[in-house]
């Protein structure tokens, strides 16, 4: 792996006078000032486009200083944990995840409500909010719907993580936050989706019946330092290109390159990451190098740990798409397969060069021809032309959003009148007829088959399907056991 590298240049962010007393230096980054001005404007939704480690947290801390209740929403529990560690040094914050609630039934609901009332800054994931919206907590009084009235500021961080099914649930949440009681919504993302912005523009505000006012703030870097006050946020990266995939096509070469780092790795002077397209290849590579590097290497694809990334404990991380979100670590080298889409490529390449210059080995099946030096945005533009970008299907989001609205109205019958107004821009009522027919057909089937195992199996499957559609991620995996005629019957649902 000794071919001549391509040097991808670094980035600088322009700074401006700190008029808000946020930093002792008296200067903040320009996009941070732009964000604060947008927050003080009449925007309903603010889209903040900024790479990780560019200073988004300062934007959030300005929101905290306003003394209002703030809800921060992260796509993974690992990110919640990381942000909690960072924020709890200065702020009184509370984590709200499923494992943070100890009670069951009504006690669990009461515990959830107490957390919401007690803390002004709450960190959670969208699954918790989705469970509230779908009445998955025991709540006969149906007052838990007032959760959407409790917070003045809603921040969705790492927003690029979500795809259509999840985004339909996020869209539902945003409509509830905007219309149950007016809240400002902040969508923070390194690579915001233009398609989802179009979905947002179809939402109706309850007071004006107009679409929400959306402001856009971007932390756009510069290739060169134009002022002594500019901040260096991305360092030069030496990039080496290789044909094919890591495990299938370049296994021995990659291992040989790792051996060159072995002494520095053992002395804890260097750290790195290896990002695969598939879990299978990541596991195979880990098994192959474990004997030689086992004490210095960690694998985290989401299946092994289901928690946070462990590179703080071991200097080399093997990961997959999970490493594309929130991996803000001080690594010196990166081996990466290019990913299936351009937005994945951006996230992976963004892991290197954050704290100092680094080396990146990119494995691609595309023919790459570049000069020995290239500016950062020119480099991304080159790959943008080479690769497909993942384009969200707006029609799928809209249809699933309508279905989710229907479920909320059906579950919270006591609030039906208000919810009909909140969801006036939705076409959820079209599902009334569908589910009326479905319920009638199931009654006829029961009359024909009786309450037999086969009828219950069909009903269980349909109920599981509907629960899956209510879920944020669209996944349900559950084993169910029945006894029929003295025999134990086992049904596995995987949706």
Automatic annotation (TrEMBL):
PROSITE patterns according to UniProt: HELICASE_ATP_BIND_1 (PS51192)
Gene3D superfamilies: P-loop containing nucleotide triphosphate hydrolases (3.40.50.300)
Annotated Pfam families: Cas3-like_C_2, DEAD
GO biological process: interstrand cross-link repair; nucleotide-excision repair
Domain Helicase ATP-binding residue range list: 37-210
Listed NCBIfam families: cas3_cyano
Protein name according to UniProt: Helicase ATP-binding domain-containing protein
């Amino acid at each position: 792996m000794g071919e001549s590298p391509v040097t991808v240049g670094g980035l600088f962010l322009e700074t401006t006078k700190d008029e808000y007393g946020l930093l002792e230096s008296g200067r903040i980054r320009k996009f941070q000032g732009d964000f604060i001005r947008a927050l003080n404007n009449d925007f309903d939704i603010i889209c903040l486009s900024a790479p990780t480690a560019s200073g988004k947290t300062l934007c959030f801390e300005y929101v905290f200083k306003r003394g209002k209740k703030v809800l921060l929403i992260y796509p993974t529990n690992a990110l919640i944990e990381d942000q909690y560690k960072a924020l709890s040094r200065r702020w009184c914050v509370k984590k709200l995840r499923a494992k943070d609630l100890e009670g069951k039934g009504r006690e669990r609901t009461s515990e959830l409500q107490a957390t919401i009332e007690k803390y002004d800054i709450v960190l959670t994931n969208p699954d918790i909010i989705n469970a509230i919206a779908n009445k998955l907590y025991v709540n006969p009084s149906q007052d838990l719907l007032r959760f959407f009235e409790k917070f003045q500021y809603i921040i969705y961080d790492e927003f690029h993580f979500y795809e259509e099914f999840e985004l339909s649930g996020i869209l539902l949440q945003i409509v509830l936050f905007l219309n149950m009681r007016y809240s400002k919504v902040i969508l923070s993302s390194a690579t915001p989706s233009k398609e989802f912005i179009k979905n947002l523009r179809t939402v109706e505000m309850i007071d004006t019946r107009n679409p929400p006012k959306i402001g856009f703030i971007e932390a756009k870097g510069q290739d060169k330092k134009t002022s002594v006050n500019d901040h260096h946020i991305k360092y030069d990266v030496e990039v080496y290109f290789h044909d094919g995939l890591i495990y299938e096509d370049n296994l021995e070469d990659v291992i040989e390159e790792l051996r060159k780092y072995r002494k520095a790795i053992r002395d804890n002077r260097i750290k790195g990451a290896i990002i695969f397209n598939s879990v299978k290849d990541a596991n195979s590579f880990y098994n192959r190098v474990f004997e030689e590097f086992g004490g210095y290497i960690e694998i985290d694809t989401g299946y092994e740990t289901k928690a946070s990334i462990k590179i703080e404990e071991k200097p080399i991380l093997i990961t997959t798409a999970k490493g594309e979100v929130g991996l803000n670590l001080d690594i010196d080298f990166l081996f990466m397969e290019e990913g299936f889409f351009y937005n994945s490529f951006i996230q992976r390449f963004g892991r290197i060069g954050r704290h100092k210059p680094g080396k990146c080995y990119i494995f691609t099946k595309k023919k790459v021809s570049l000069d020995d030096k290239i500016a950062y945005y020119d480099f991304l533009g080159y790959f943008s032309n080479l690769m497909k970008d993942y384009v969200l299907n707006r029609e799928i989001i809209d249809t699933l959003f309508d279905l989710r609205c229907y479920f909320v109205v059906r579950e919270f019958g006591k609030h039906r009148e208000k919810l009909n107004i909140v969801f006036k821009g939705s076409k959820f009522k079209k599902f009334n007829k569908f589910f009326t027919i479905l319920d009638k057909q199931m009654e006829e089937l029961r009359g024909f088959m009786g309450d037999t195992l086969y009828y219950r199996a069909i009903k269980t499957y349909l109920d599981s399907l509907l629960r899956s559609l209510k879920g944020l991620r669209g996944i349900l995996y559950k084993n169910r056991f029945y006894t029929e005629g003295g025999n134990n019957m086992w049904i596995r649902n995987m949706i």
